[in-house]
Design brief:
The protein contains 5 helices and 7 strands. The chain is an alpha/beta fold and 177 residues long. The two termini are 15 Å apart. The structure holds adenosine-5'-diphosphate.
């Protein structure tokens, strides 16, 4: 599924983020930035040890913030590491923190001249954010950014598995009705 927002492409696809050819891919990391499971593990495996070496110098990352490294052996030249909120029922500013992950990642991309970027579904794995709610927040945050910035030409959501992909397609269709 692909739509145009203010001259930029917003794409939803099912796939593996480590294989994307965008300028940057986003990692759903943890605060230490020293590696983990899920998409974080996949990115460090595909990118090789150079990414972890760079991460060690960053001193971690707060929830909702984002930091950049190179992409190691992957096609994407950059990895933007962001830390999603752990879902605790919805009363701990999770929505605001999740939106902040997308906004800060896009700001870091803009600051670094990145024009195309791929996101995973942040917080919906080990951090247990309900997928339908996370999809709405993610799409709203990205659409808001694209409506006010023209430097990013493509934002691609790379959803792992059919369940995540359908949830994002449904959320996008509902938002456009
Ligand atoms: P978090 O800790 O933020 O919840 P996870 O990595 O556990 O991060 O999960 C985030 C999302 O990333 C989940 O929906 C998971 O299915 C997905 N994911 C896992 N591996 C990949 C991959 N290689 N490419 C894209 N998405 C992935």
């Amino acid at each position: 599924m692909q739509i145009t927002i203010n001259q930029s492409l917003l794409t939803l696809l099912e796939g593996d983020i480590t294989e994307q050819d965008t300028d940057a891919i986003v990692n759903a990391a943890n605060k230490s930035l020293l590696g983990g499971g899920g998409v974080d593990g996949a990115i460090h495996r595909a990118g090789g040890p150079a990414i972890l070496e760079e991460c060690r110098k960053l001193g971690g990352c707060e929830t909702g913030d984002a930091k950049i490294t190179g992409g190691g052996n992957m096609k994407a030249a950059h990895v933007i590491h962001t830390v999603g909120p752990v879902y605790g029922g919805g009363h701990h500013d999770e929505a605001m923190k999740l939106a902040s992950c997308y906004r800060r990642s896009l700001e870091v991309a803009s600051e670094n001249g990145i024009r195309s970027i791929a996101f995973p579904s942040i917080s919906t794995g080990a951090y247990r954010y309900p997928i339908d709610e996370a999809a709405r927040m993610a799409l709203a945050a990205v659409i808001e950014y694209l409506n006010s910035h023209t430097d990013i030409t493509e934002v691609r959501f790379v959803l792992f598995g059919g369940n995540a992909f359908s949830a994002y397609c449904k959320a996008l269709r509902e938002m456009r009705e």
